[in-house]
Write a structure and sequence with these properties.
This protein has two helices and no strands. The radius of gyration is 21 Å and the shape is elongated. The longest helix is centred in the last third of the chain and has 36 residues. It is mainly α and 96 residues long. It has one domain.
């Protein structure tokens, strides 16, 4: 009995593109989970501010920071994905 093959969504391929895709998927999932948790915390803080402008501002800052974090994570995904594609692309054939 040999090793059990993993589904493609867990282990997509071998080599640099496959390993980098696994790491990117894990980090994106972790980032999404943290973003959802922070949005829930910010929303809860805003709802329970009870008219206190200081607490409401703290909640708005939490939500704003979370949105900025999601934008940074998405931009870093695009940059890393571009770099991996460029590093693993086959070289063009030489012209005679």
């Amino acid at each position: 009995m040999g090793p059990i093959p993993l589904p493609a969504w867990i282990w997509p391929a071998e080599g640099l593109p496959g390993v980098s895709q696994i790491i990117i998927n894990i980090l994106l999932t972790l980032g999404a989970v943290i973003a959802v948790i922070m949005l829930i915390i910010g929303g809860y803080q805003y709802i329970t501010a009870g008219g206190n402008p200081e607490q409401a501002q703290k909640a708005k800052n939490t939500i704003f920071g979370t949105i900025i974090g999601v934008i940074i994570v998405f931009a870093s995904y695009l940059i890393i994905n571009y770099i991996v594609i460029k590093l693993t692309a086959p070289l063009p054939a030489p012209t005679p």
